[in-house]
Design goal:
single chain; Arginase, Chain A; 8-stranded parallel beta sheet; 8 strands; 40% helix; binds zinc ion
Length: 325
């Protein structure tokens, strides 16, 4: 039986854009515009085509899953629209919209369904949003309300056969919320490569932090990525959660690492190749990207998802094949 030639399952919902107010400082159209770029790859019927994506629609996450990583009072106050103005400002997706709740629940649902998918079928799956690593147990921050990486890691530990999860955070910003939520969780390893002088200015402590000085460029960044991957694979994880932010890009308005598009492409290949070699399932979380113009960010995200699809294409399925493949 030919088990290769699988498409990459990619979770997406229009609310990823529409749930954010048009006047928010966040570049909300990046989701719809990225979808336009990826659309041609979703129509490919030919199984021999190396880049194929299949879009999946997320259901809203259930509250019990959120409680794995978050304080019930914080969840409740968010759900009923009772976060204070100060709390909303700290998250930064203001002005707040009524659709923000459903956006958040679907975004979290997408991450969770992608995680469940690779737990059952192996390989790679992705959510076209999220990587919300600045969300803490009791508060949101830096465009992040709930922490999808922490929720998915803790969810995975309830899956039979999953004993260790590694979180590889390659966004230019430190994964401070992830590190703080999971600091006492020995079964989850948190590794963050980031720019030392970028937000958050008060960093928390991951299991391994690899801070880089501003303007490090491709070589230093890729060396750190290799080191971070070694640390992840040393624990022989049953699952790798990959925060694939592209804000290390030289054209990014917020990041300061000055990495090229080619450098980020190399980064993605290094991660997917290593995961394949070690037969570790991977979930891709989109992460940050704020280039001006936004096209540079979209190109880099298109690379992330098409490279994931290309690696998925030839990756042997060592677990349950999906029906109808
Ligand atoms: Zn970022």
């Amino acid at each position: 039986m030919d088990l290769t030639g699988r498409p990459l399952p990619l979770w997406y919902h229009p609310l990823y854009t529409d749930g954010i107010h048009p006047e928010a400082r966040f570049p909300r159209t990046r989701y719809t515009r990225l979808l336009e770029r990826l659309k041609p790859f979703t129509d490919v019927e030919n199984r021999s085509s190396p880049v194929r994506l299949v879009l999946k629609t997320p259901e809203p996450i259930d509250e019990a899953s959120l409680r794995l990583a978050h304080d019930p009072t914080y969840i409740e106050r968010f759900m009923v629209g009772e976060l204070s103005e100060k709390e909303q400002k700290r998250i930064g997706l203001t002005p707040w919209t009524p659709a923000m709740v459903e956006r958040t629940l679907r975004l979290m649902g997408g991450a969770l369904e992608a995680t469940q998918h690779v737990l059952e079928h192996g390989g790679i799956a992705a959510n076209m949003a999220g990587g919300t690593h600045h969300a803490h147990r009791t508060f949101g921050s830096g465009y992040c309300i709930f922490n999808d990486l922490a929720v998915c890691a803790l969810h995975a530990l309830n899956h039979p056969g999953v004993e260790r999860v590694a979180i590889l955070d390659l966004d230019v910003h430190q994964g401070d919320g992830t590190a703080s939520i999971l600091q006492d969780e020995e079964a989850v390893l948190t590794v963050s490569v980031h720019c030392a002088t970028n937000f958050p200015f008060r960093k928390t402590t991951s299991d391994h932090d690899l801070p880089l000085p501003p303007d490090s460029g491709d070589l230093a960044y890729l060396e750190a990525v290799e080191e971070a991957l070694d640390l992840c694979m040393n624990i022989q994880p049953d699952l790798l959660l990959f925060q694939a932010g592209v804000d290390a890009l030289d054209s990014d308005a917020l990041g300061r690492l000055n990495v090229t598009r080619a450098g980020l492409r190399q980064r993605n290949d290094i991660v997917f190749q290593r995961a394949e070699r070690e037969d570790v399932p991977v979930v891709v979380f989109m992460g940050g990207g704020y280039a001006k113009p936004i096209e540079r960010t979209l190109e880099a995200f298109e690379d992330v998802f098409t490279q994931a699809a290309a690696w998925q294409h030839h990756r042997p399925n060592t677990r349950n094949p999906e029906p109808g493949q």
